[in-house]
Design brief:
By secondary structure, the chain is α+β, with helices and mostly antiparallel strands. It has 2 helices and 7 strands.
Length: 155
């Protein structure tokens, strides 16, 4: 391979990386979330989402979440964010303030997600830990990055 061909290949790789980063930054800004795309890592939402699907997310405030929305939240002891469906909404009192708390469950799970350990919440997920809600799914396009990440133990 000639030097000119190497330069062209490297230029295309650099342009591609810049475009991907620009798109990711634009999505973060437009959708009001630090993680506009997540890869589904389990079968807990089948048949709606399958392992390897990529889900486009939009940042959301607790007041805008409705029963039936698919939301993303992070548990302190889990590696990946959890993407499950809202099954119910409760109002609870915490330190004299009324807060929203969500009953969340994977479509393929037999029981709702447990509340957060060490919090004053019982059987629901507090609204302030919900990061985003699902807008759109891109089937299976995250399967290769997911497999590579897992094989290399990168997360």
């Amino acid at each position: 391979m000639e030097l000119k061909e190497w330069k062209e290949d490297i230029a295309w790789i650099v342009i591609t990386i810049i475009l991907v980063l620009a798109l990711h930054t634009a999505l973060k800004f437009a959708l009001h979330t630090n993680s506009p795309l997540v890869i589904v890592v389990s079968g807990s939402m089948e048949p709606v989402f399958y392992r390897g699907d990529v889900v486009l997310l939009e940042g959301v405030s607790p007041q805008d979440i409705k029963v039936g929305d698919v939301v993303v939240y992070k548990r302190p002891y889990t590696r990946y964010p959890i993407i499950h469906r809202v099954r119910g909404i409760e109002k609870i009192n915490v330190d004299g303030k009324q807060k929203l708390c969500f009953v969340i469950q994977g479509d393929n799970n037999p029981v709702p997600d447990p509340g957060l350990v060490g919090s004053p919440y019982l059987d629901c997920i507090p609204g302030d830990v919900i990061e985003a809600k699902a807008l759109l799914v891109f089937p299976k396009i995250g399967l290769i990055p997911l497999e590579v990440r897992e094989k290399l133990s990168l997360g």
